[in-house]
């Protein structure tokens, strides 16, 4: 009887230990705003800046792991609407129709703007003219030939840059001749660096933060200054011109969180929109949505450094 009791006690002890251990593992895997893992779908035209944000976020919060999946704008929004992705980085806000679809599915997306971005026009260094009128590009998109432009080059047909320029030109389809779509922003930069007369259309972040393999190609292109539709002056996709609201191809960047709970998506959105995230934006040559504050220390007297 005593032996039976000891065996029973041992079984109960092992069972309780296993349950506690299982609970501990479950708690370890539980996601919070600063802990756990998730994947985010990112508009590929702004992948560079998001890679920077993720690197600093993970370096600050060691228990957080974020996987970046770059896709075209069309794919990003399709993934969100079809609930294949819960968190996304986009170059536009949700439309009324998209919000209505989320409401129908009882989803309340949290949309946080975090940066002012720009679309850039680039040309080969062989082209001495570094100025271009936006109307010239719009006319070309409407099928009107221009001797100054051999062709327009986009990253891919479903990208946010294509959608942006189509909306400006008020066309549903791009011309069948003279407009080319490749696959990535880097391919556009490389193609333009090797071909005179072509105008590339890319996200400016790929120019300010080129990948190591693109540095030589970047040296062979010009970033064009653009004259807007209602302006007689040319402006560049720089932080200063973005801050003054002068550059005609500016756009905002957003993080859209559809997780529906206080998870890592909320923590990452707060990080990007917060002081550290905005300073990362500032150093990337984009314009922060909220300018980070600066603390000044005023001294009554100058203190000489010790020799």
TrEMBL record:
It comes from the Bacteria. The keyword Signal applies. InterPro entries: PBP_domain (IPR024370), Phosphate_ABC_transporter (IPR050811). Keywords: Signal. Residues 36-274 form the PBP domain. Pfam families: PBP_like_2. PANTHER family: PERIPLASMIC PHOSPHATE BINDING COMPONENT OF PHOSPHATE ABC TRANSPORTER, PHOSPHATE-BINDING PROTEIN PSTS. This is Phosphate ABC transporter substrate-binding protein. It comes from Flavobacterium reichenbachii. The lineage of its organism: Bacteria, Pseudomonadati, Bacteroidota, Flavobacteriia, Flavobacteriales.
């Amino acid at each position: 009887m005593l032996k039976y009791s000891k065996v029973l006690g041992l079984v109960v002890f092992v069972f309780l230990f296993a349950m506690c251990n299982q609970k501990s593992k479950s708690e370890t895997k539980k996601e919070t705003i600063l802990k756990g893992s998730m994947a985010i779908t990112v508009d590929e035209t702004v992948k560079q800046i998001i890679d920077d944000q993720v690197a600093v976020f993970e370096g600050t919060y060691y228990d957080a792991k974020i996987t970046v999946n770059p896709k075209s704008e069309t794919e990003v929004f399709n993934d969100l609407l079809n609930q294949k992705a819960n968190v996304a980085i986009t170059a536009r806000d949700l439309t009324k129709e998209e919000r209505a679809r989320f409401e129908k599915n009882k989803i309340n997306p949290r949309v946080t703007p975090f940066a002012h971005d720009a679309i850039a026009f680039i040309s080969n260094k062989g082209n001495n003219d570094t100025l271009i009128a936006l109307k010239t590009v719009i006319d070309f998109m409407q099928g009107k030939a221009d001797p100054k432009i051999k062709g327009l080059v986009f990253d891919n047909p479903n990208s946010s840059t294509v959608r942006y320029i189509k909306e400006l030109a008020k066309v549903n389809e791009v011309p069948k001749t003279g407009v080319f779509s490749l696959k990535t922003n880097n391919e556009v930069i490389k193609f333009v660096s090797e071909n005179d007369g072509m105008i590339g259309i890319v996200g400016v972040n790929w120019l300010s933060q080129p990948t190591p393999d693109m540095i030589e190609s970047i040296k062979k292109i010009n970033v064009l200054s653009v004259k807007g539709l209602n302006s007689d002056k040319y402006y560049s996709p720089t932080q200063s011109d973005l801050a003054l609201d002068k550059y005609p191809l500016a756009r905002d960047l957003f993080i859209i969180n559809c997780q529906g709970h206080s998870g890592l998506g909320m923590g990452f959105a707060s990080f990007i929109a917060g002081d550290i995230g905005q300073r990362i934006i500032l150093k990337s040559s984009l314009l922060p949505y909220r300018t980070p504050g600066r603390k000044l220390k005023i001294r009554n007297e100058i203190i000489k450094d010790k020799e």
